[in-house]
Amino acid sequence: MRFDLTVEPWLPVVECSGEQRLESLFGVFARAHELRSVVGDTPTMQAALYRLLLALFHRVYGPPDKEAWAELWCAEQFPEEPLSNYLEQWRGRFDLFHPTHPFL
What are the tens digits of pLDDT across the range 49-70? Predict the structure, then answer.
């Protein structure tokens, strides 16, 4: 049994159009420019989801200074290559049922 959080849709999001759906970790960052928000059933769940995404964002993109942060902020969308590389390197850690690596 496998459930890879990087590709399986599981994060509840609201698109700019107002439509709600599920998205994968990769999809949230790849399509961030098309999303309005991440939603949770409770405020604490929503905060936890944002915290996970923020930690992953900093790990992948790690803006080292204000200029790099401003460049990411102004970009039309996040570059996919750093995200793909990171998620591929650590894919096993994002599989809930990986036989040898614990989740996260």
Answer: 999 999 999 999 988 899 988 9
| 27 domain residue, yes or no | yes
Assess if residue 99 is contained within a domain: no
Helix 43-61 to helix 80-89 angle, to the nearest 10 degrees? 100
Q: In what order do the strands lie in the sheet with 35-38?
A: 20-23, 11-15, 35-38
Cβ proximity of 22 and 12 under 8 Å: yes
101 located within any domain:
no
Residue 90 lies in a domain: yes
pLDDT for res 62: 87
Residues 8 and 2: their CA atoms lie apart, in Å, by: 10
Name the residue range of residue 78's domain.
Answer: 11-94
